[in-house]
Amino acid sequence: MFSHKVLKLIVPTLVGTILLVSCKTDIEMVNLLAEREQVPSLTAKNFEILHTENGKPKLRIKAPETQYFQHAEEPYYEFEKGITVFIYDDSLKVESTLTANYAKFYEEKELWVARYDVVAQNRIGQILNTEQLYWDQKSKKIYSDDMVKITSEDDIIFGEGFDSDENFDNWVIRKISGVLYLDDEE
């Protein structure tokens, strides 16, 4: 039916077309998967969650909106419109609070990143201000490498870098500067 010359011309053309279509499909699939990682699988408005331990509230998180990126290489929650966190003691009193204009929670690492006008306050009224703060829930530590300011009833302390327990009770400022007022006692 077909001459040998026609088959030599048609077969490579068909194989090339199949390979081209196959490559295009693979590229489209890669692009689709990449887009999937960047699209939230869940969006919640007026988000509020209460975390309890042994039936007692330990942590309450409130946010105007949250998005969950389940298909990202490292799944995370994103709070683009800000966040407020309350940590409770065993007698259900607020032990510390944290607010930020942006936050992200990496689910597998149990790591929070709070950014932009971050304010934390502990039960004795000390207030921490910084632009970026990390909270490692596994190690129960909060820290920052940015400039920080801690205001208490008597002092304002500035520094670069900060480490604390998650309740903001025992803290250390690295590269400290500021004004300290000491009582003149003889």
In short:
The protein has one helix and twelve strands. The chain is α+β, with helices and mostly antiparallel strands.
Give the SSE map.
Blueprint: H1 4-38, E1 42-53, E2 56-69, E3 76-79, E4 83-88, E5 94-100, E6 102-106, E7 111-122, E8 127-136, E9 141-151, E10 156-165, E11 171-173, E12 176-179
Antiparallel strand pairs: 1-2, 2-3, 2-4, 3-6, 4-5, 5-7, 6-7, 7-8, 8-9, 9-10, 10-11, 10-12
Order of secondary-structure elements: HEEEEEEEEEEEE
Count of β-strands:
12
Q: Mean pLDDT score, rounded?
A: 79
Oligomer: single chain
First-to-last CA distance = 116 Å
Number of helices: 1
SS class: alpha+beta
Helix share, percent: 10-25%
What is the CA-based Rg, rounded? 27 Å
Shape: globular
Stretches where pLDDT is under 50 for at least 5 consecutive residues are 14-24
Characterize the biggest β-sheet. Answer: 6 strands, antiparallel, barrel
Instruction: Bin the strand percentage.
Output: over 45%
Write out key terms for the chains shown:
19% helix; alpha+beta; 12 strands; 186 residues; 1 helix
Walk me through this protein's architecture:
It is a single chain. It contains 1 helix and 12 strands. The N and C termini lie far apart (116 Å). Strand 10 (156-165) and strand 11 form a beta hairpin. With 186 residues, it is of the alpha+beta class. It has a 6-stranded antiparallel barrel. The chain has one helix spanning 4-38, and strands at residues 42-53, 56-69, 76-79, 83-88, 94-100, 102-106, 111-122, 127-136, 141-151, 156-165, 171-173, 176-179. The longest helix has 35 residues, at 4-38.
